[in-house]
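Please go through the protein record below and see whether the fold suits the sequence. Record follows.
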Amino acid sequence: MGEVRIERVVTRGFIGAGRPGMPPEGVELENNVWVVGDDSEALVVDAAHDADAIVAAVGDRDPLGILLTHGHEDHVNAAVEAAGRLDTHLYLHPDDLFLWRETHGDALPDFELEHGAAFLVAGAEIVTAHTPGHTPGSVCFLLPSLGTVFSGDTLFRGGPGATRWEYSSFPQIIDSIRARLFELPGETEARPGHGDSTTIAAERADLDAWLARGW
C-alpha cells in the first residue's frame, strides 16, 4: 500500500449522435476522468467515452467504485461497460436518473448518492457534496487530505458550468458554489470534468463578474 494520489485520464468521444440539431455523428468532446488511490486500490470519478482507458488506468488495483458527478451523456457513456469490466459499483445522485436513462435506459446505477455520503480509498476520505444547478443531481467530491475537490461540471477555470437547459438554473448553481465550494480553503484545487484545474481562491475572486454577465 502506498501514498494516495490522483491521476487524470483525458478521454475523447462523440455525444448526441442522431439527436435533433446535432450533426449525424454527434459532437466531439474531451473529458477528464479522475482516478484516486494508491498501488492497491482505486476510486474512479466519472466514466467518459473510453472504457478501455478507464480500465487501463485502474490496472490491477482493487476498484472500489465509479462515482459520477452527474448524469450527462459525456460523463456516463462508458460507465456501464467500465463497471462491468472492473466488477465494481456505480454511484449517481437520483435526481439525475432521468438524464442517465437517456444514455443507458433501464441499466441503472447500483447506488444512489446523497449529500454527505463518504467513501474511503487508500486511507483518504472522499465526501459527496450535492451541488445542483448544472443538473438537478450534480455533485462534487471533496478530498480534504489532498486539498482537492472534483468539481464535475459545477465549477471550471473561468466560472460555473452551463445552465442552458430547462432543468438547469444559474441562480441555483451560484448558490451551490457559494455554499459548498467557496467555503473550502482558498488553496483547494478544483479538478473539473473538462479542461484544466483551478483553485477556489482564483474562482471566488471572479464571482461578481459571473453575476454581472449572468452565466
